[in-house]
Amino acid sequence: MSFPCKYCGSTATIHLTDIIHKKKREMHICEACAREKNIIPDSPKELNVQALLELVLGAATTPAKTEPADVNCPDCGIHYAHFRNQGRLGCPNDYVVFRELLEPLLERVHNDATRHAGKVPRRHQRRLRMARRAELEAQLRSAILAERYEAAAKLRDDIRVLEANNHEP
Amino acid sequence: MNLDRLLDHLGEWLRGTGPESDVVVSTRIRLARNLAGLPFTNRASPHQKAEVESRLREAIESLDLNHPLRYVGMTEISTVDRQFLVERQLVSRELATVLEGPRGVAFDERESVSIMINEEDQLRMQSMRSGFDLDAAWNTIDQIDDLVESKVEYAFSDEFGYLTACPTNVGTGMRASVMLHLPALGLTKQIEKAFKALQKINLVVRGLYGEGSRALGDFYQISNQITLGKSEAAALNDIRAVISEVIRYERLARSTLMREARQSFQDKVARALGTLQSSIMMTSEETMELLSAVRLGVHLKMLGDLSLTSLNELFIQTQPAHLQKLMGVPLDGEERNAARARHLKHKLRSIGAE
Lengths: 169, 354
Ligand SMILES: [Zn+2]
Ligand SMILES: [Zn+2]
Known about the structure:
heterodimer; A: about 170 residues; mainly alpha; two-stranded antiparallel ribbon; 7 helices; about 50% helix; about 10% strand; elongated; B: about 350 residues; Creatine Kinase, Chain A, domain 2; 2 domains; eight-stranded antiparallel sheet; binds zinc ion
């Protein structure tokens, strides 16, 4: 079985699938059209994600209704509209500044996900552990004050486990 | 830095060994990382790029590794040398020819790890393995990532993970790609059927180098698309499951070929080898197609003396920049086609192909 190219109808060699709001969307493109649309550069290395983004997002999102195009990042100065044009953010802070605008986009690209679920750098692990410990200690204090001793014992165990992990590399 | 010494070697990804290497050429995993508190490359001033380059270069060159990484600045080498590194898949075409300013790559002598600095992201670290070996590739790059992170602070958020210039990479920043050689699926016209499995779980498949319905030389690259909301291990498991299926399809198609069309297939392999041995002019596209057929012949034990390793050598050495470095002079298209034909003829004779 072969699929026709979305643009010119000849046999497609590039097949993209993404699932948007539980609905699968397939896209089939021939090499020539992909090259013309700049989805693949001449190199075999990687897709042109910017062009790909435009393709995947473009149809569904333009013209955007609530897009304040002139929001810009105080750190790097980039405007949201500029990002939408070229597909690249300007600095890490943009994820904070453009957060609400980026979330629907991230959902579309990443299969409805908006939260990281993978590796965490060590220095962040330490910070996370410290925050978690403070939180547990607060809960422990209020459990003791409320004389909920069973809950307090459980919290004390949790803190101990956290302590033990603390010594891992 | 003189890159000529690499000419006599095969990079790790072309070694032709490793698990499932009858179908899988290579496995690579790359991680995208950026430094906290600095703009991404596309928004960085020349001064900031220089700062990023020197900080990262220093961090990378001082890593305590069995095979230390050595840095090559893109601005310090010739156009042919940059192209040469692209052909060896140590740098992206972007880094070599599109991007500007301070940028470069560090890699080890085995060419199993390469770290690009000031690519789209400030760090693009990748590990390569021949054959199908996601675990080994992941372990290496995971460890290097930890070591680098002990020296610099990455841009990271609890919510979005590793922050990247393009939101398609945010989260793990990980892209795992497996390069497959699927000539029997190509010959038996079952390639689309085989790839239907991929479309179920958000993987991207692309033909390499090719146009038309079949990828040139039947080389395909399959990689994960999603980097957010899915752990590295889960993403690797998805890709592992699908690749195993594709491998099974290809092997099935090969045995079908051998059972039902043995003679015409033998004829195809023999003609491919004959053409490679006797041509006067040879384009790189045709070389790729013919070597693909010969490669399948080697897998099916039709060509006793020829090894996968020496075939892989021919694949890489017949690329434009490799050819020019081998010949020691710049060559235009026509001259390259002639030099390529001569090189193939000579090499195939010396490795004893009948
Ligand atoms: Zn087309
Ligand atoms: Zn910014």
